[in-house]
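Budget justification note: compute hours in this period were largely spent on complex prediction jobs such as the one shown. Inputs:
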Amino acid sequence: MCLSLTVAARQHLRELVLLRRVRDRIDREESLDVEALARGLGLTAGDFARRFRLAYGQSPHGYQRAARAVRAVRNREAPAGTPKVA
Amino acid sequence: MDVTIHSSFLPHNDPEAALGFYRDLLGFEVRMNVKYGEMSWITVGPPNQPDTAIVLTPVAATPGLTDDERRTINEMMAKGTYAGVNLATKDLDALFAKLQAGNAEVVQEPVEQPYGVRDCSFRDPAGNLLRIQELR
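Corresponding output:
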């Protein structure tokens, strides 16, 4: 499976994994420091924001706002003890 | 009618990594491991829940997908937006410590959620999101 992927495709998937870890961090942290997140990946802030948007369809700040809005609705409407979706 | 959930599916892209996580780290038993060429379908489940299983499936490698669909599935798995499962345990802190010590990818440390659940979350090696909530 993975063996049949090209080098470029594997590199692309590895970059997506790194972006996923950043996105998970955005989900769990209150503040959003794009400069710091970019530094962690060895990218400029602009390059990081561009790659994030390519992967997730919106800017890091846009993503954080949208994810918070979804969580707020879920938290309000979910009865205590109900198993949650991600 | 008497229907139970028997098994459900999660994608994997590396059978050894999947076994290292679900069997060695999470403590699930391997109930079946069906191989065909490079592909493996691995049925795992908790020892204390013999009637329910997860089939770890080589989704992106299975026949019937276009190249575009295969690429999209691989990308969504890597991005962490493809699939997940919710688990539960009585001792959340012990399980969290075990997974963290095993270098599992931590998404969220144990927290009290506003909806009355205490949970934590991890990524499995394929990028699936595992939320684990405390039974109380």
